[in-house]
Amino acid sequence: MVPYYACAVATGIYAVSLFSLHRWSAAESAPKQSGARDPHVDNAKFLGMVLVCWSHIGRWKVLEYSGLTSEFVIWFHMPMYVFLSGSFVRPASWQTFLKILVLILFPLVAFCLLIFPLERVMLDMELKHLWLPGAAPYFEGSVFHLLMGSGPGWFIWFLRCLLIWKLASMFTVSLPKAAQIALGILSGLAGVYCHPEGNTWSYGLFAYQRALQMFPFFLMGQLLDTSRLMKAVPPPSTLTMASTWLLLFSLLYLENHSSIWSNLTDDLFHLLDSYPAPFMTYRYPASCDSAYYWLWARYGASLAYRTFCMFIFLLFGVPRGRVWFTDAGSATMYAYLLHMPLVRYTAMGLTKADALYAATLANLPPALDYICFIALATALNLWFAMIVYVLTLHPVRSMFGVLIEPTWLLNLATAKTRSPEKAEEAK
Fold this sequence. Notes:
By secondary structure, this protein is an all-alpha fold. It has one domain. It has 19 helices and two strands. Helix 2 runs antiparallel to helix 3 (about 75-85). The radius of gyration is 22 Å and the shape is globular. It holds the Pfam family Acyl_transf_3. Keywords: Membrane, Transmembrane, Transmembrane helix. This is Acyltransferase 3 domain-containing protein. GO terms for molecular function: acyltransferase activity, transferring groups other than amino-acyl groups. InterPro entries: Acyl_transf_3_dom, Nod_factor_acetyltransferase.
């Protein structure tokens, strides 16, 4: 019972810390500049996409690591994306509604019906997978379930959730802050206690459980002005950023050595049971009454841990000014929708390498094993960065822009909506 009380205390400290940060930031918050892109945000989006590649490689054998795990260490990148997305909330208007439908819903549908089947063809080299709803690789049974995210295309959950958050926030943004915070708390608790009964891939119809549980991060990005915090903490030097990434890879090394990780963390993450946090998996209350009752505290502690990791990364692991990949950070939607085949090919190549070098890498001394892992992680990170960068280049954007960034459709819809108004004015 004591660990559950500790989770409750951590939840309370987390709430007080956020409230204090909000009050401190709001004391001297400057109005946001419109039109100018923040290079720090674009840099964070690019590096977050690199971590997305990390999280999607873990299902395959990587050298001696059978299924490289990264849920506990790396899985703060999606809360970071949600947090950054929340800072771009706009009040309800017809133009905002059109932008949400065209720039989020259209790419989602295009991915489900065109890009995802083509990616499967690239991976399997079998044209029979191009379009067979109900057969491999879908398993949804219908086009409806394909669009709702109840099959292998579940990993595109972020777009589904972003659509829900954007539509909901159009109306909640005008509510008092206290009401918005209460709504965020109720949303998170509903996501914990009202879980779906879906299949292996399902997180509820249209990923509703993830939308509910991640809404506090979106709300945090909307309400929390971090500009004063960024000014108070000096920009990280190259050495600081390198040390942050080295710490990240070192923790990843420990996570993939279960006995060491369990001893160091005292099985804390098994208590939070957050795979991947904060999407908590748990047994039914009849078989685990105490754990079920304390889910709210475990959920709060999980949010606190991910928020802490997110801010450490934003403050010390991401450059604040313009760098070579800043412009690519504004086009990470392309990398998000197109990266999976390249990441899988990478995993397949590493598995082939394992067959060649397994004998050489087996039974290394701990120090040498750690050095080899850090070298592998650094090389993989650079490779993933190159993948993300290439997928955001102009040729790729020209080829897939009609589906992924349909500004042409937005301009057409805007023109259609304005033409009746002009006709009325002419009368």
